[in-house]
Amino acid sequence: MEELSKAVEVEKRDFKRRQRSNRLKQVLTISSPIFMLLIWEFLSQTAIIDPRFFPPPTTIIETLISMGASGELLEHVKVSLIRIVFGFLLGVIPAITLGLIMGMYSSIRHFFSPLIMALMPIPTLAMLPIILIIFGIGEFSKMVTIAASVFFPVVINTVAGVMNIDKVYADVAKNYGANPKDFFMKIALPGAMPVMMEGVQMGQAIALLTIVAAEMIGANSGIGYVIWMNYKAFLIPEMFVGLILISFFGYLFSLLLRGLQSKLIPWK
Amino acid sequence: MSEKIKVDQLTKVFFKHKEQVMALKDINFSIEDGEFICILGPSGCGKTTLLRILAGLETPSSGHYDIQAKGQERPLQSMVFQEQGVIPWMTVEENVSLGLRMRHAPRKIIKERTSMYLKKVGLTPYKDLFPKELSGGMKQRVSIARAFANDPEILLMDEPFAALDEQNKFILQEELLSIWEETKKTVIFITHSIDEAILLSDRIFLMTSQPGTIKEEVKIDLPRPRQMKKVRSDPKSADVFLKIWNHLQTEVQESRIKHER
Asked: ABC transmembrane type-1 domain: which residues (chain A) (predicted)?
């Protein structure tokens, strides 16, 4: 009896130790950005780093609040978000469709892959002049720029996703009499979903990158424009506000997509 | 009894790196309606190829096969695949109803048949789970229910219990027998286990490899309904086991000599 309670005691202590170490890891995850900001604040306040170029976080937050209050910032954010969302959809939807078809039919795959391989290495920003020539300088050309940059990672991952589906599932579908439409909707699309969503995640990151760069070069609104104009006017805290907004939206989008991912792929 | 399946001079040749492999050579047999047939042979003897041809997943190089339909709107055949055959992104219920959904059966019939077979294999409480949450034995129950629910003319089973542990295998074999007794479907079952073949089948086709041919046919006339316990203790089944064993033994040795030459 005593032996047993001793054994339980040992296990209990071990369990508690493991719990403590897990909690420590959580604390570390939350505290690392806070720690960074504190160091930054301290270095900047004490002028160890030049506060003209690296204003303390508290100043940046004050600037954010005052910029937000004027309403102008909200306008820029809105413009950028609309470009990102529609540009993203404009790239993702054709990419998924083409990717699924390429994955399912090898002749179509062999026809399109050299084209994709040749176009992919060109940075979308290098295409910006051509896009401006074709689509003009309006909003649509910005969406096309984002769409073009999102398209490639998504199409490539979707093809890979379809090719990755175990052949036995195709056999099962065939044996149980699936027609092409059912095969597309019930086997190819859900089967490719995990790898495809990795591509969509990647596309989302690239979309953010592209829109900021595009707005720096050829726009008079948007978050990228805010960063660039304030840099030119040497309004450094205002420039940092733009950076913070991008970081915030990048994080938000990847959280949203992760949520969508677990909704779409409950079986993984 | 009427003839259900007729296979006539079926031959299949594969090309692998320019080398020619005779997977099946001049396969002939005929199966009566409601028979349970096991095809028994060592791995690589072409038994899976034979089944895949009957399942419409491969085409024969020459020869014919014919499956008699009773003229209703029934699929000709449904296959029970090895363990990976359960589709991971469909729930247990969706997997079982797959065949019915694919041929767009009336919703009422889909529901009825699916819940009937879920019940028969004891998976009703698990119908909303995804396969990743199931054990190997439960996955094979899904696979079996899916094939029976599709109500085909014949059932094809490709070593469905090969990946299971022994206890589970025994349980599933008996479950399969009891469902089969109720439905009296014609079954072709592939296995490399002599015990399994004796327990399940009316006739066993013994296959040999390279080229894959049916060497012999063994009739199992143990009384039905069969149970593992009874079959195991029946002296007749021991005789049959030895007969098949001796046959396979010489086959394996002969092919080894052939290869060493």
From this structure: 73-257
Tell me how many helices (H) and strands (E) chain A has.
11, 0
pLDDT of residue A45: 93
Interface of A with B in 165-184 (CB under 8 A): 166, 168-169, 171-179, 182
H or E element: which one contains B216?
A: strand B213-219
CATH classification code of B3-68+155-260: 3.40.50.300
Residues forming beta bridges with residue B186, ordered by sequence position: B154
For residue range A70-111, list pLDDT tens digits in order. Answer: 888 999 999 999 999 999 999 999 999 999 999 999 999 999
Record the tokens describing residue A227, joined without a space: 């960063």
B89/A176 CB distance under 8 A: no
Angle between helices A2-45 and A57-70 (to 10 degrees): 70
> Which of A56, A197, A208, A219 has its CA nearest to residue A131?
A219
Task: State what percent of residues in chain B have pLDDT above 90.
Answer: 68
Q: Which alpha helices (H) appear in B43-106, and where do they start and end? A: 47-54, 92-96, 98-102
- Cβ(B136)–Cβ(B166) below 8 Å: no
Dump strand ranges (E) for B53-201: 62-67, 77-80, 154-158, 186-191
The DSSP bridge partners found for residue B77 are B154
Interhelix angle for A72-104 vs A189-218, to 10°? 140
Contact A75, A221 (CB under 8 A): yes
Mean of per-residue pLDDT scores for chain B: 90
Shortest CA gap A215–chain B (Å): 41
Task: Note whether A173 contacts B102, CB cutoff 8 Å.
Answer: yes
